[in-house]
Design brief:
The structure is a homodimer. By secondary structure, chain A is of the alpha/beta class. Chain A has one domain: Rossmann fold. Chain A has helices spanning 2-11, 32-45, 60-68, 132-143, 162-168; strands at residues 13-15, 19-21, 29-30, 53-57, 77-80, 92-99, 104-111, 120-128, 147-157, 173-183, 186-189. In chain A, strand 1 (13-15) and strand 2 form a beta hairpin. The first copy, chain A, is globular. Chain A starts with a helix and ends in a 5-residue tail after the last strand. Chains A and B meet through strand 3, helix 2, helix 3 and strand 5 of A and helix 2, strand 3, helix 3, helix 4 and strand 5 of B. Strand 5 of chain A pairs antiparallel with strand 3 (29-30) of chain B, so a sheet runs across the interface.
Chain lengths: 194, 194
């Protein structure tokens, strides 16, 4: 997605050799008009699959999923929680994911009320890096007896190998921008993908 | 907002004597089409104020702010974080809020890059209860030398007194549904407000 790569080049910043920070439009401040374009692009990429539900994880994923939903004719959106509030008292699905950025392991939790057997579930998230978060979401889908319709990421860090792991497990992955390398503060994209 | 009160009556559940749970459309599963109506209603209520930026706090607030933004002509949305990720390395504003539901104290953090002196900031959130979260957000706005244009809540728990505290501090508060009392598992609304 050309406009996305331009925006990452213009507004993104690099921390160390692996972290790309896009807080100006995706992870802290949110450019809603631009995320609508992102949503439209996800619809183009997944136009041939049935989507009964969009699944993401708090926090940044919520904006992406909500702004994509209108283009998929408003399926319910549900987000996994990283900490169970005291009000989550009935049964839930649970899986574990390591966050590369935060250096922590999160237990993703999703109430059994909001994901059902047989549903086609599109997983959307901001970053695809090592693939751990997507795998944890896919695991929840499978615990429910539902089907992963696809996995969409706004930005893939190709050098962390996550998309290959997901594809080897049989999941369809669409990343709107794929970063091949981060070097000397510069971001290099894979121009054949994304 | 009549449709909101109906939805809370139909889908909301009561835990104990104080907690109202609306996980089916607001706090876990998200009904995006309905949140667009909510966004439109916020625009009606705050039609006479200038809004340069919408401020909320993760996680549920993100959906509300993002789906309201189009009706305010796409001002930037920014959400306070409850934990600073390792990528938040430059200066930030900080304030403290107690979460009634989770029984915890959160430190809200917001990068100084995404809130500026002189801006008119609309604060939007899911619940207004004791008012602590809104106060913490308003404090951040004032730390930045910006101005609180108004505080909008989807659901106010009137019996926890937050809106009075906020109004006494001079803030304009708009709640789309005001719950007066929760008793024997039933929800009673204030039909003169909301």
């Amino acid at each position: 997605m050309k406009s996305l790569k331009e925006k990452i080049r213009l507004e993104g910043s690099v921390i160390g050799t692996e972290i790309v920070k896009v807080d100006s439009f995706l992870n802290h401040q949110i450019d809603v008009e631009f995320l609508e374009e992102i949503g439209m692009e996800f619809k183009k990429r997944f136009n041939d699959v049935d989507v009964d539900r969009i699944l993401t994880v708090e926090a940044s994923g919520i904006a992406i999923a909500c702004l994509a939903a209108p283009y998929f004719e408003y399926p319910p959106v549900v987000f996994a929680k990283k900490a169970a509030p005291s009000t989550m008292n009935s049964g839930y699905y649970e899986s574990e994911a390591k966050s590369f950025t935060k250096g922590t392991v999160s237990a993703f939790k999703l109430s059994k009320q909001y994901l059902h057997e047989g549903e086609n579930v599109l997983i959307l998230d901001d970053f695809l890096a090592s693939g751990q978060a997507s795998l944890a979401l896919a695991e929840i889908v499978e615990q429910a007896g539902a089907k992963v319709a696809g996995i969409g990421a706004v930005i893939e860090k190709g050098y962390q190998g996550g998309s290959e792991i997901l594809r080897n497990k049989g999941y369809r992955v669409e990343s709107l921008a794929v970063i091949n390398e981060v070097c000397d503060g510069k971001i290099y994209f894979d121009d054949n993908r994304g």
